[in-house]
Predict the 3D structure of the following.
Amino acid sequence: VNTLSARPATAVPLDRVLGDPWHTDNPLGYAAVLAADERGEMLAEGERLLTRFGLNAEFVPGEYDGRFVRADRLADTLRALWRRDPCLGLGYGLSSLIASMNVWTCGAESQRRWVARLLLNGGRVAAAFHELDHGNDLGSAECFAHPSSTGWLVTGRKEVVANLHRAEAMVLFARTGSKGGSRGHTQFLVERASLPAGRVSDLPRIHSSGMRGVQLDGMRFEDCPVPAQALLGQVGQGMEIVLRSYLVTRSVVPAVIIGPLDTALRLTLDYALDRQLYRGAVADIPYVRTVIARAFADLLAADALSSVTVRGLHLVPETMAVYAPAAKYLVSGMVVDAFSALRSVLGTQAYLRGGRFAMFQKLARDIPPATFGHISRSACLVTILPQLPRLARTSWGRGDPANEAIFDLGGPLPVLRLDRLDPAARGDDVLAGTLNALAGSADATLEGRYAARFAETLGALRAHCLALAPRDLTINASPAAFALADRYTVVLAAASALAVWRRAGDRLPREVLLGVLDRLDGRLGGQPVLSPVEREETEGKLFALALERFRDGTSLDLSARPIFPC
Amino acid sequence: VRRAVETAEAALDAVLGDTARQEAALDQREAFPADLCARLDAFGLPAHYVPTRWGGRLDDYGRLWSLWRTVARRDLSAVVAHGKTFLGAAPVWVAGNSSQAEETAAAVLAGAPMAWALSEPEHGADLLRNSFSARPVPGGWRLDGVKWPVNNATRAGRLSVLACTDAAETARGHSLFLVDKAGLAPDSWRALPKEPTHGIRGVDISGIEFSGATVPEDAMIGPRGTGIETTLRCLQLTRTLCTALSAGAGERALRVAARFAAGRLIKERPLAERPVPLSVLARCAALLAAAEASSLVAARSIHSLTGEMSVTSAIVKPLAPTLADSVLGELAELLGVRSFLVGVYEHGAFQKLYRDHQIVSVFDGSTPVNRAALVQQFPRLVAGFESASYDAAGLAEAVGQNVFLRPPCTDSLTLASRTGSSVVQSLPVLAMELAADNGPAGLAEQAAALCADARRLTLLMAQVRPAARPAMMAYEMAAAYELCYAGAACLQVWKAQARQHSTAPLWQGGLWVRAALRELRARLAVTMRWAPPDACPGDDAIGQELGRLTVAAAANGSTITPLGTPVPMISPGSQESV
């Protein structure tokens, strides 16, 4: 009943539209992508092709004639796009998704239908939330809306908002109540054309060091009338809608940013095989092989956590207020770190904006917003902290394991219920339950020892989290408390990797799991489970597998599906 | 000595003026920082590239390091462009004859830029495999081949060029030439176009192609076949001095981020008043202090521990940019979107220096290249640590301040240190001395723990078998050895200079050195996958205190690192320009 079994993969036809990245005539190839980046423009031909492909339908729920039915499919599709060009991924893809999610979550029927039609016709919705003075601190946003006889009058500024100038619609986040209250803000769904020209003005576009094609715009409102029916949800519900809607998008983002890392790894492999140094290929240098192996292991670990997180939207909506920020925090950190490591292999080639490997520096400039965009890494930890004592009490000692479906990547999923996403996270931490169960049945194999190691870590975290002082559950928490939240995200990733691999059986390469777990173990610090020889061995297997996939033209993520040679 | 350096830095700061807006605009247009370089010329910086023997003012590599840091904390592009002249001239100082030196000195003192043409399109750091050739012809040498990418290749009138003169792929098969473009037949060479780069966008990163260019016989620098050797000896100087770029970039970033944290309100309270952002600033300040101490000690070691520079340069060249990159990464997260936007917040300084600085770990020998070079010297480092022998007099000069620094003698630069590293090998004695001292809380414990770490590390290094392609573990040991060097340098500087700095806030209670040791040992444990270090007495208090001092120093322009200098404050109100 209500099970979404089929998983029609939009990512596959999308890859066909994206075409051969190395073909110089391909309007969506690397040459075109780089040229647009140099001009600081969105790839116009790319946008046209994506519109013809109907990419926006991925963001529109099925009941409004779109294809947004499964969060994992959405993530796969966006990952394919981000693998090619994060500017299109954000400027064409993610920005409309983020804005419209508020509408799917809390909009009136007419608003949903209007936004669905707009998107299906290739239009854009901008998320007008950000103000430079307040950033992630949405509760302090100053732009305000006063009630008027016909609706509302808005005054203030929104800044660094993707597509704000050219989007046909925007979701506007404005203060409607007194300062400091949790119900002080309200969202409005506004049609740009309805705003009187004299009351709203476009501020100059702001340029950025990466994502150079994405138009980051500002807008100033002066007693700008907004009709009463623009109200999205109820007055004072603005923050609540954000917290609920963004559980979806913050879960999807980690899965998506694995795309650019996939490409960066491919470029590094290409370089290492091509370039000759010290009487051999660069790929013969053990340092190079190890850096590539570890970045690949990080990619796989990140994919395990983000895949489970995305499936969690369907399966454990009541716990996503923990899992979404955990995945966003850890995966963005791992991806950025992996880029730094790969840079050391490419050397000069990572620094040149021309030549065969120029895509690397572009991706390296595009990726940092993953750490602060949509929600910053430190804000993720601030979100997780207050939940830790409860989870430690209810779930970390003896909680139930997760429904195995969450680890069955690509498998059937129950219908996504946005209304069951719970910003207050009242659910149990079933991934901890799974980890404890795995540790309980662990044997003396290395895999079993890892299960025991991570379960021990969880046990130690439990003791610390039960003893946390009230102040340590807030933004004023000590660095040591933040470190607990950080370690917890690593444990979640390890639980995900262990369970995903076990569930997949032969479908996932067993021989590299140890390397994946070793990387996570390394993030926790302390004596490694593997001996130096064992680590060298598993890293050798990781490198060999990365090389094999690169040569076969399959993706480096868990799906290992054929893609164009990138 | 120190006072003279500080005065020179202040004078340089005054000449530079307020550069922030101009620097940002040039970067956007990818324009060469010509005006800034002209100011550096007017200040007389080129004279600091020329040894006193040849009429310049270069008699203290520590001072040159400090001056470069002063420029680097304004604009990394400017120091990369201007400083290249020193790199280009270094082979002449190290191996040239007196007429070459006189000619080069006159040109440099007159402000003429120079370049050092080492890299080739297909070979990068692999100098032995270079294919650029110089063949004897009547009256001189005929040059053929491409040098690319080369900083200043187009702007420079003179270049030091490494060319293959005998059997390819052999250590004695290459020679260096001093090439004056003015003496070449016009159609025998051409400049290759400027390469667009990720950072240092305005700098002349280009190349030069020679086809049958002839240079006179006396263009050869040093005897035939010594090109590789001279290059490696020069790199010991330049790799050491490049660390100033990381120190400068790190300082600028720390100041920008600390000002942001002080002004940014989150839930109506400044970020800088919250424990975690404060601890981030403190950690960055501590790592920067470690980078500064180790780099400055290394620069002074050119004078007094000259024979160890093959080790010292291979340690600090990867160490300083690695620490700085890590600092910049943390500060970028603290700054959030302001680490990313062009023109926003202090003219978008952060995103520019973040990009600019990423070249430092690449050029002049990348981080992996230097670590591999250190691995080759492990046996000597192991033996040196076991014997606990070190050059006490040389070390005292390197770590001191207001102490006599002997004149540099570049003839003593050798390809492999015979005595290991005096800085690291002094650790056992130093730890004992600090234990006997009535020093700051926890410092003696830190020193003893670092010494134990170093011992444990050298035992592992002893097991590394020499190999042309070392295993990853050997690279990690090299990285860990760098951290031991940094810790030892901090402790030595503290011991030598604490009395002189007794009134400076950063030095109170050993604040900076304790914070630095704590961070270095934590990194060491992560690098080696050892258990995290235990806390030492008083550890919990130092982070917040150092964080507060950092915020205060950023606000008023006072010194932000233990061996730093104040920086003139930019005009108020220019922070949030959009």
User: Anything to note?
Assistant: The longest helix of chain A spans residues 286-315. The first strand of chain A starts at residue 3 and ends at 4. The beta strands of chain A are 3-4, 125-128, 144-147, 151-162, 169-175, 185-191, 200-206, 216-227, 231-232, 413-414. Residues 277 and 479 of chain A are 44 Å apart (CA to CA).
